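Bench log, entry 3. Co-assembly request; chain sequences pasted below exactly as received.
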Amino acid sequence: MERREDQGVSELASSVDRRTFLKGAAGLGLGVASMGSLATLLSACSSSTSPNTGGTATAAATPAGAGATATAASSGAATQANSIGGSLTVAVYGTADQAKVWDQVFDTFRKQQPSINLSVLPVQSTSGWAGFSDAVITRIAGGQPLDLIAIATEGQRLFISKGAVQSIDDYLARDTAQLGDYFSDIHPKILEWSNTLCSPDGKKYWLPAVGNTMTVWCDKEVFAAAGVPLPANDWTWDDFLATARKLNKPGQVYAFHLPVSYFVGLAPWLLTNGANVVGPDWSKATMNTPEAIESLTFMRQLVSEGLTPDPGGSFDPYAAMAQGKLAMFGGGRWPVLNIRSSNMVDKVRIVDWPKKKSKGSPVGWLSYGILQSSKNKDAAWELVKFMASTEAQKLSAQYSAGDMPLRRSVAQSDAYLGNSPEGMDRTFAAIEYGTAIPGVAKNNLVEADIDNMLTQILAGNVTPADGAAQLNDKIQSNL
Amino acid sequence: MSARGTSLAALASTERQGGPLSPLRRSDTIAGYLMVSPAVLLFGLFILGPVAAALILSTFSWDLLGKARFVGLANFPAILSDPKAIRSLVNTTFFTFFGVVLHVVVGLALAMAANRAMNGALRHLLRTAFFFPVLVSWAAASLIWKYILDPNFGFVTYYLTQAGIAKINWFISPTLALPMVVFIDLWKTVGFIFIVMLAGLQGIPHNILEAATVDGATGWRRFWHVTLPLLSPTLLFAITLTFILDFLIFDPIFVLTPDGGPMGSTRTIVFYIYETAFRSFDMGYAAALSLVVFVIVLVATVVQLRFSRRWVHYE
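Structure output for the full assembly:
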């Protein structure tokens, strides 16, 4: 965009709304080609801008129009509750098998709302939330009828910037009393971040449901075999390095698994050293600070000393730990799925991330956004509320188990802590000293740049200082 | 000219001047249109329509979900000042140049080897072995090579380490990643060129080769002065096809080196178009890039065909 504005064309350019553009393009395309392909292509795109149903106003394509839409939606609130019905499709990140797990949670919603026909659309991604966001936006543009999206922090601003989700301000105002229990139970820091960092235009778009922080998962048996005591929750980077060196046995046991990843790989080491990818308001890149470079240098040291597998290859930390070939890895709540299936619940202990300057952890959370393209927004709102309920969070902890409930009452209950490694409570405790994982509007591009440069730094192809400087420029260009 | 020929010519002349078509002629004309209509329809649907759509899109700035903004031709000069686009074209040129050279040389060498007199079972085994990778999907082939070259568990890494050679992280090295993709592409697709070359070799009349032998031509001279000239139409086909396919390479780049590879070293132009359209959501600029690629491939193909008159022998 800036590219062309620099060339002074913006003043010449006239805006065309999406429907007009598509119609015009279709007409011209048909005229040129006299064929139906273009019409098919463009009409498929145009169908994503669909009107609301149930007496609500036409969905606006921009965030600015979202309030009006929600207002119109709330005008029909008196008739909602038991009268809500119709079809509802929610896009979730994962495979078809993982969608079945979600279905176990959604089944309770189906029983509560028998007139709503809820279906789950699993969307796979090989590049994390960035790839998921790209895929869903493309599907919406292609005319796929979606009502809701379960999206992590990393992608929430992207959907707002595209005008793809609608504000829930009026729904919140309408159902304040009903949600009172939720607001008093959810961790307040999450709510604050969600309403400020992830809702940059002052409107509210999300009700955070579940989340994740980062902790270190230790194999007690490997520690015992090496005669190394399990770390305490206040351990430091120096302690970590000394412990890792004792645990590491070249060709037999890796001390630690350091993946090339924004949330899992980079963020914990930055945040425990007082650094971050961007500043507190996510408007300025901060990867070229001495603290960030120090973190990258430390991470590179782990690779160069052979304490962690080389980047770029395939390494399954769960299988390796099950075989006694890995002593530690970093994770949120999600490793518990593999830990349980490998019968390793009793041999693993979870501890806080080691600190350099202070304790730190990235905090990410999943929210359900109502899409502007939804034709059944009232029903979608019912699902949003359900997923924020105690019941759904308990079911989520019990069945899907890949995320941490954000309600304190559930996170401290047996539904979450049961059948889990010792120290699972540290995952929720990490919110206290944690930092919201940055998720800027172009996070899909930022994440790709981070992964790419982090790979080069860890592999030793670029020095941490040079890599940090280059990465800083790339990130800043996408803010 | 015979009387009948004169009569037909006169009839055609009358029809060209706007005269009524004879029933037979009209019937033939309708049949002709019907016969070509499927091809025309498919061409319109899959070639002309998308090209027209790309032309229109290229004059807009459009992020898929928001408002489209008419920007005229501004997307095109922007390409010249876009370092990623330039780098992608350089990478693509590298990939295409070595891809074409290696495919033709290796494909011809394999075909020459398989065309030699040998045991029937061995001949079939060789042909199947050479062609088999073509049948494997790109996704599967890419993953196979990823495992083979894995820096931690790959057997190539293992044997290199055993031989005292330091680990090589093939897909992370900015200097090695693209050559490695060229190699994997060669392994995966050279089988098709091999089959084409083999067919070309088997189409060369034996009597010409025998005559050259009788005239005292040695193996090398026979290859250089008889086989190669007679194979030139096949070579032209192979070069043109490989050029187009390699210039448009995408699948192995996407699977082996996501995000454009180490420091953008494997980002080809088609991969960049994909990134621009479906990651940056800049559909207009992506359409402009795709039109540039279309023109490059078109011009390069025309130039190849034009120069081929100097070295391709059809008799």
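The longest helix of chain A spans residues 96-112. The two ends of chain A are 13 Å apart (CA to CA).
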